[in-house]
Design brief:
about 55% helix, alpha+beta, about 375 residues, 14 helices
């Protein structure tokens, strides 16, 4: 009966691939689930990589500045040291088209709390205007002398709260506020006033953040600032973020690339084998259809239709689960961020489709070489 039903579908041009796939619902669900799990592995690994880069570049990425000025040859904050003349911000502020320019002091150090220690970016900023500081203070207020603003994820990990003491550069500072988004797998961020930074380290201008008044594009503004600040490196915010992402990516390229590659290869192998097995399980039905006159291209189209259905449903399920995980993981591990991107989903979908077609069409190629009478004998 199943062969007659398939033949009827073939003659009526009903979507045969879908009918064959869901003819045995349990088998169809298992196939889709296996492909979805494989794709989820790929999406999570890539989301972990992207999330780590976003966390590391969060400070400058969320800044309202359009242009960043640093010491000549210095293009990043991560693993960098920059020093500028004290009047750099004043000169930048005098450039036509500049709305404001503020100095920022920066160094890498560590912050200690009752429950441990974390590597940190220590940033000194103008607490009166708030420029150069965190985008938003979640709890408390801006710091003064003898005080600090700590990221909430780091505060949770270190056992800190508003009113407690965090040790930075060997000096206890009262935590008066909590920010967010500044903690990654590798480090966190602590904000202090420019005066407190001078007490802890030295009076320093590490970077100057420049915002335009909207009269010029950021590239044009950067060019104008560079004219009055020779001997410095002037970048747009986008260029600075790209440089920061590149250096962080280079530092962890081997590990991240290996993780992504292994995960991707495993996923493709699972998808190809899963769809090949699915096609082989139905090979007798396809053989009967071939014996009844169905051309090989029609059978190949049916198998391709199945692959499209399986891949489409699996991508949708895997993407949904990855998005859910990206929301849940930070709640369980505050220093870990997952970011699912459209590019990652598209790449995983294309790879799954290619692997699925390769695995599923191999049995069809084998079927094309089978004599019709053989199909009848094997179906008895």
């Amino acid at each position: 009966m199943s062969h007659l039903r398939l033949l009827t579908d073939l003659r009526r041009r009903v979507p045969l691939g879908r009918r064959v796939l869901f003819g045995d619902r349990r088998r169809g669900v298992l196939t889709i689930t296996g492909v979805a799990v494989a794709l989820l592995l790929v999406l999570v690994l890539d989301a972990l990589r992207v999330g780590a880069l976003e966390r590391v570049t969060a400070y400058i990425r969320t800044s309202s500045a359009d242009v960043v000025v640093s010491q000549e040859g210095v293009r990043t904050m991560h693993m960098s040291a920059s020093a500028l003349p004290e009047d750099t911000a004043e000169k930048a502020a005098a450039v036509p088209g500049v709305a404001w320019a503020v100095p920022v002091a920066f160094t890498s150090t560590a912050v200690d709390g009752p429950d441990g220690r974390l590597l940190t970016y220590l940033i000194g900023y103008d607490t009166l205007t708030g420029r150069g500081g965190p985008v938003r203070i979640e709890e408390g207020r801006a710091p003064g002398r003898g005080e600090a603003l700590v990221d909430d994820a780091a505060a949770s990990a270190l056992g800190l709260a508003v009113g407690s003491a965090a040790t930075v550069q060997g000096v206890p500072l009262t935590v008066v506020g909590l920010a967010s988004g500044g903690t990654s797998i590798t480090n966190t961020t602590v904000f202090v006033s420019a005066e407190q930074f001078a007490d802890l380290v030295a009076p320093t201008v590490s970077y100057v953040l420049v915002a335009g008044d909207g009269s010029a594009h950021s590239d044009e503004l950067a060019a104008e600032v560079e004219k009055v600040l020779p001997g410095t490196t002037v970048q747009t915010r986008e260029q600075f973020i790209a440089s920061e992402s590149a250096v962080v990516g280079d530092m962890s390229a081997d590990l991240l690339t290996l993780m992504d590659l292994v995960g991707y290869l495993i996923a493709l192998a699972v998808i190809a084998l899963g769809l090949m097995t699915s096609t082989l399980d139905r090979l007798r039905d396809y053989g009967v259809l071939k014996a009844l006159g169905a051309p090989t291209r029609r059978l190949a189209g049916t198998v391709t239709s199945q692959v499209l259905w399986i891949t489409g449903l699996a991508v949708a399920i895997a993407t949904m689960l990855a998005v859910v995980l990206s929301a849940l993981v930070p709640l369980l591990a505050s220093t870990v961020g997952l970011s699912v991107t459209a590019g990652s989903v598209a790449s995983a979908a294309i790879g799954a489709l290619a692997a699925g077609l390769a695995g599923a069409l191999i049995p069809v190629w084998r079927l094309a070489r089978i004599d019709a009478a053989t199909a009848f004998r094997s179906s008895r």
